[in-house]
Amino acid sequence: HGPLVMVGEESQTKQKWALLSIICVFVFVGLPLWWKTTEVYRSPLPYNEIQLLQYHPVPPLISITVKIINLVDNEHKIPTAIKPESKNVQMTDYNIDIQCNPEFVLIDNQMKEELRNDLNTNPNTDLSSYPLLSTSMGHYIVFLVENGSLPDITESNRVLYSSQRHVIIEMTEDINSNHKHLLTVVSQLCGTERMHSLLTGTLGHEKKTDNQNMRRIKVSPGYQITLTLINPDPSIMDVQWNIQEATQSMLLPFLQNEGISKIGNFTISSQIFYYTDVHLKPLYSKNHKSYVVKANELPAMISSVEAKLGSHVSQWPSLNFIVYVPKPSEYPLYIIQNKGQESPVTAFLVQQWGGVIFYNPSTPHNSSHVDVVMEDVMVIVVKQLKLLMGFQEDENIEYCVNNQYCVPKWEVDHILLERAVESVFIATSSLISLTNLLDDVRNMVISDHIQQEVVTSLNQIHQFREYVNKSLWNTAYNAAQLALHHAGMLYTFHCSCQLVYQFFLL
Question: pTM of the full predicted structure?
Answer without folding.
Answer: 0.80
